[in-house]
Amino acid sequence: MAKSKMDFHVPKSDGWMDNMGIVHFKSDVDNDLTRSNPPRGRLSYPYSYDPFTVWGKRDETSNASVWTDRLLQWNYRKFRVLGKRVWKTGGEMVWFNNMKKGNAEKVERFLRLYYNNPTIKLTRIVEYCNASNGFPVWHLIYRNERWPEA
């Protein structure tokens, strides 16, 4: 009997699996930290570019992640209010304008306020191109200290 994708186990020493079921191996993830120009860059492929790390910490373990468009979808009002509190402006463009600068401290503060959890520690910000519309979307990878080790 063939194994399904759900039967796959990733040892902690080798990598981690995000909430979408995508496996990230430490060597691949850490190598991405030094790659500033992905093979399909934003300038040459503006509507279908490859993901790249905007900011990250080497060898940091994570146990949670979220996409910025999901935060907006789950609670639009909260997203705007917290955006104004953290960046002095709200809305979707706050991410685009601030992610170019890699403002990790402010992103971490935003996540802590959004989830009402002061133990969140941001470990990585990865920019992706949303395949459905060509706009950027960010994958925020973090460690939630309130969750026990799996």
Give me the side-by-side strand order of the main sheet: 3-5-6-4
Low-confidence region ranges: 1-14
Number of contiguous helices: 5
Net shape: globular
Give the class from helix and strand content and strand pairing.
alpha+beta
* Multimerization status: single chain
What is the H-and-E element order? EEHEEHHHHEE
Provide a quick synopsis of the model:
With 150 residues, the chain is an alpha+beta fold.
Describe the model:
It is built from 5 helices and 6 strands. The protein is an alpha+beta fold and 150 residues long.
What characteristics describe this protein?
4-stranded antiparallel β-sheet, 23% strand, disordered N terminus, two-stranded antiparallel ribbon, 31% helix, 150 residues, single chain, alpha+beta
Topology record:
Layout: E1 15-17, E2 23-25, H1 26-33, E3 52-56, E4 64-67, H2 68-74, H3 76-87, H4 93-99, H5 104-115, E5 120-129, E6 136-144
Antiparallel strand pairs: 1-2, 3-5, 4-6, 5-6
